[in-house]
Amino acid sequence: MATADATPRASALIESLRDIGYSLPTALADVIDNSITAGASSVRIFADTIGDDPSIAILDNGCGMDQAELIEALRPGSKNPRETRAPSDLGRFGLGLKSASFSQCRRLTVLSCKNGRIAGARWDLDEVAATDRWEISLIDHHEGIPQAGLLRESGTLVLWEKLDRVDGGYRHDTQKRAQYINSALAGAERHLRIVFHRFMERTGKGRLSISINDRVLEPIDPFASKHPKTQPDQPEELRLAHGVVHFQSFTIPHHKAMKRDEWEELGGPEGHLRSQGFYIYRGDRLIISGSWLGLARQTELTKLCRIRVDIPNTMDADWKIDVKKASAQLPPAVKERLKKIVERFVQTSKRTYRKRGQKLTDETRAPMWQRLIKDGAIVYQPNSDHPTLLEFEERLPEDLRRDFRNCIALVGAGLPVDSLHADLFGQAETVKAADAELDALEQALHSMVPHLLEQGISEAGVRSMLKSTEMFRKEWERVEPVLARLLEQEEHE
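The chain above was modelled as a monomer; its predicted structure follows.
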């Protein structure tokens, strides 16, 4: 059979590699994968954004490469994805370094030091476009290359220049270009903190430090696993032909149980509604975060649910891990198991919210609002029998009492349910009741305290009940002296 040469044109294919779909965060993460595979304990990212030729450098202290290894590493498709890999190898296609770098820049320079000897090579896409050849330039002298002086006995420096995909189009406006690149790096920071958090949390051997312009990043644990209010389920596993899949479910704390900055950091820029769901790790490296992958809906009542899924790199083909290591598909056997886990587990999060809501309406004998079930619907209405309202009604002339009750009913009927639903959807923690004036709180206390004591509740019980009521708890420092005087008066009477 006759054959013909079908070698792809270098200038065409190498430009196509730029559009696999990387963002700056995923491109940086892919380069760091190589550092981890090389045994690095430190990855330092340097960004020169104010010069005429901005650049981004990623420097690690891994095992490094000699010239032959470096040339092979810069070859597109340097590894077959079907090859057996070490469990710690985060690569797959042998494309990551090249495709991630090309997605952000037109010139990629790599210097690597092994046993004290430095090797260097460069891809320049403008040169490839001119020659249409799969050729890299070998670098004999590394003087003048940014951050090259930081290389030690072993390690690798990846340098991105000609940042045409990172400059935001502001190539002739250095100030705006710098602002844009810095903003993009700030967005990448959270991605790195969560994707590599398990490496960053380790102690001793295997621990990874990541810094940007010498500022060390802190890990973000999406499960808040060290928080005392986090509810972890028992780990589970599923043994399949190409490896073992591990599962563990977590119910993160309600926002009332966390500091505001902790809660906001845990939810990220998209909020907790978008952060619920599966967190899939491949070799401790996060590849999917906050998605139910079609097995459940993102709802307010399930936003505390997070399920950790760990897979080995021997299952890459089964999960259809993509080049960017940013997407995957559930194998049928795993999907069936996860369906059962989801059906059981999401009820925990729902109970956390419902239990709290029920607690808020049950902790006091005189709630300002009543939660009722009418014709299968949940109805909230003001409690017209609240002692404060009853006392005021009794002071009204007989002909005004009915009008007063009608006004209270209208307040309940006018509850803006649609607006509340829109505000609570994904940002429930930002919705709160209005603060009451001290005069109004004192009036409520004068009505409620005698009422509660008449029901046989002790003074300590009254104090505890009122302190658990939101409107009093928020102003407790001012409410407590008034309450003490009232209790003292009631005792003398």
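Residues 356-364 have pLDDT under 50 and may be disordered.
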